[in-house]
Amino acid sequence: MEKVIAYKSFNGRLFETEEKCLSYERKMLKYPKVKKTITLADKAYIRGEYVPINIECHIIERWEKPYSAKKVSKYFIVGGKYKFVDLFGKHERSVMGGGVLAFKEHSMSMYWCLAFRYFAEQILLGKELNDEFVKNEIEKINTAYFGVTRKEVNKVKLVVEIIEENKKWKIDNPSWHSGAVAPYTFTMEKIK
Q: Fewer CB in a 10 Å sphere around the end CB: N or C, the chain?
């Protein structure tokens, strides 16, 4: 039998030398590492000029330990009052790309797959979201169409799930939950 001396780190890992153990513990004190990035939306073309719009994209990257896979979460703050979460990564381009935001009723943004953008536009116009408003707007979107085929119109079946009364909503199109195309699901939450 041979007596062995080992050094045990705070998380139970064993090392042959004190230096290696201390080096490992110093390295582990830096974790979890979190990096947060905020990007502002591009300017929008409104009434003949480019103006900034109040939409921010927040990206949070997190590493639990050295060499671990990076976990990324992303959400949008619209008008400083609402948090939008795009569950399948379908909507970022439509709200962050600027371009011509249609700040009017019955715009192309009422097409069902642009509902994320439509609600962002409504918030930037000064509308406050509540259960009744969200349900009514989804009903308008479900009945509005702009030259699309009858087959596409029949797929316009957005539904609202009230997660928290007058505070948080989930918008979804259940007919897109099968097949190779990711669903167009997102949540909206009042934060202020």
A: N
Q: Which amino acid appears at position 104 of this protein? A: K
How far is the first Cα of the chain from the last one, in angstroms, to the nearest whole number?
67
* Neighbouring residues of 77: CB distance < 8 A, sequence distance ≥ 6: 55, 56, 58, 83, 84, 191
CA Rg value for the chain: 24
Band of residue 109 on the pLDDT scale cut at 50, 70, 90: low
Does this model's pTM top 0.90? My answer is: no
| Tokens encoding 121 | 């536009």
**Tens of pLDDT, residues 34-46:** 999 999 988 877 7
47-52: Cβ within 8 A, 24+ apart: 50/98
Token pair, residue 166, equals: 């007058």
**Residue 100 to residue 89: CA distance in whole angstroms:** 21
Residue found under tokens 């900034």: 52
Host H or E run for residue 84: strand 82-86
